[in-house]
Design goal:
Number of helices of chain B: 0
Strand content of chain A: over 45%
Largest sheet of chain B: 5 strands, mixed
Shape of chain B: globular
Helix content of chain B: under 10%
Oligomer: heterodimer
């Protein structure tokens, strides 16, 4: 099992460029998440998808859009990258459902630099 | 959301037990307490979770206070590979939203 796979691993963008971060999971999980982690900080939730066809904002959604393409895939798009979006981006998935005791499984991250 | 308080950093000698505390005084009755850790340059990984009873697995033990306002992650014999940031996350009342704080940075001294 690959678990949660993120592509690309590294990316450098110029201010104003756009890109899509890809995430796929092979565990048949219902819920998927995008987090960002700035140097020396904890993780902050950008968007999440409780199930196929639904998405919701997290703590820091501004400047991002997401698409839950199917049950396996959840992409994060930066329409016009800004230096403040320089960060490490983590995708995660969980099986889900009440009582919310399913653990999160994380990918290895995408390191994005915006110049 | 239930708020958590964890020490910013802790140190332990190798092969000694480590007790990592977490206060979550606003936790609701249906919130599970999850613990994750993040090794340098890696994504977080699940460690353990529980509701009311103490829990054990091959990685660690979780001791939950009777009033559930605090919990302690116990690493029975710290190794150098346990050096990481440890996050305590109550989860349930907000459903799908796992909120990570800044965690406790554990240093293991050889």
């Amino acid at each position: 099992n690959a678990g949660v796979t993120q592509t690309p691993k590294f990316q450098v963008l110029k201010t104003g460029q756009s890109m899509t971060l890809q995430c796929a999971q092979d565990m048949n999980h219902n819920s998927m998440y995008w987090y960002r982690q700035d140097p020396g900080m904890g993780l902050r939730l950008i968007y999440y998808s409780a199930s196929e066809g639904t998405t919701d904002k997290g703590e820091v959604p501004n400047g991002y859009n997401v698409s839950r393409l199917n049950k396996r895939e959840f992409s994060l798009r930066l329409e016009s990258a800004a230096p403040s979006q320089t960060s490490v981006y983590f995708c995660a998935s969980s099986e889900e459902g009440f009582p919310y005791n399913s653990p999160l499984h994380f990918g290895n991250g995408t390191r994005l630099t915006v110049t | 959301d239930a708020k958590t308080t964890q020490p910013n950093s802790m140190e332990s000698n190798e092969e000694e037990p480590v007790h990592l505390p977490c206060n979550h005084s606003t936790i609701s009755g249906t919130d599970y307490i999850h613990w994750y850790r993040q090794l340098p340059s890696q994504g977080p990984e699940y460690v353990i979770h529980g509701l009311t009873s103490n829990v054990n697995n091959r990685m660690a033990s979780l001791a939950i206070a009777e009033d559930r306002k605090s919990s302690t992650l116990i690493l029975h014999r710290a190794t150098l590979r346990d050096a990481a940031v440890y996050y305590c996350i109550p989860r349930g009342s907000t459903g799908n939203q796992f909120y990570f704080g800044t965690g406790t940075s554990l240093t293991v001294i050889p």
